[in-house]
Amino acid sequence: MIGFFDSGFGGLCILEAFLKECPGESVFYIADNSHCPYGDKSAEEIRKRSEELVDELVNIHHCRMVVVACNTATAAAIDFLREKYPAIPFVGLEPAIKPALLASKSGVVGVFATRGTFNGRLYRETKKRFANGVRVLATIADEWVELVEEGDISSPRAERLVREKVEPILKAGADHLVLGCTHFPHLRALIEKTAAGRAEVVDSSAAVARQARRLIS
Ligand code: DGL
Questions:
Q1: Ligand 1 atom closest to residue 69's alpha carbon, by position in its atom list
Q2: Res 201 pLDDT > 90
Q3: Which of 8, 86, 174, 189 gives the lowest tally of CB atoms within 10 Å of its CB?
């Protein structure tokens, strides 16, 4: 059994990508809706909650590997989890800024994520290492998490909330938009509609699924 968890429905896009890579695997997914969103919680709170969820995945559901299908939980807890469960391989999520920074021609990249992800070591280190003169415009988009949790991914309101965040980043010249929260690929159709012909939308699902497959084999 491979365990997955996220603050809610976001990580289902990671699960979907994983099942495309590894169709025969058994999976157990925890959507932690009662504690959603993680975006406004302290790193300490998220660490504690992640520990409880991993305890459940490993000790009750006997998972032999855990995918932290949440950028915010990865930022707050993955180092701690790896230390606490040395026998369990963990796969974490981080915004796909490296490929976006390397591919940007305009020299401007937009990233959408939670505050916790932007404050995390992984994000800060990758940005420092690969920015190389490229401007990174970081946008916190907690409203998008709410939309996805409500199952509202296509209404006029959802389109307006997407446009409000994306348009200023496009106007600033971004040619790549990085979805640094696992809830956001669920809004991909609206984000792509807004960015059509102006910027490419990038997320980490496929890369994470491939990494999980490599670890399993
Ligand atoms: N899906 C989570 C992530 O990837 C965060 C959403 C939340 O704020 O709970 O960061």
A1: 4
A2: yes
A3: 86
Ligand 1 touching residue 6 (CB < 6 A): yes
Both 40 and 60 in a single domain?
Answer: yes
Q: Which amino acid is at 187?
A: L
| Segment 13-35, tens digit of pLDDT | 999 999 999 999 999 999 999 99
Pocket test for ligand 1, best of 5, 7, 142 (most atoms within 8 A of CB): 7
Are the CB atoms for 186 and 13 separated by under 8 Å? yes
Range of the domain at 78: 2-93+206-216
Cα of 7 vs centre of ligand 1, distance in Å, is 6
- Dmax over CA atoms of the chain, in Å, equals 49
**Which amino acid, one-letter code, is at 170?**
L
86: helix, strand or coil? coil
180, two tokens: 């640094």
Q: How many residues does the chain have?
A: 217
Beta bridge partners of 112: 139, 179
Distance from C-alpha of 6 to C-alpha of 8, rounded to nearest angstrom: 5
* Interhelix angle 156-171/142-149, nearest 10 degrees: 150
CB under 8 Å to 102, separation ≥6 — which residues? Answer: 130
CA 148 to centroid of ligand 1, rounded, Å: 10
In the numeric block, the tokens 């937009």 are attached to: 110
pLDDT given for residue 217 in this prediction? 87
pLDDT for the residue numbered 156: 98
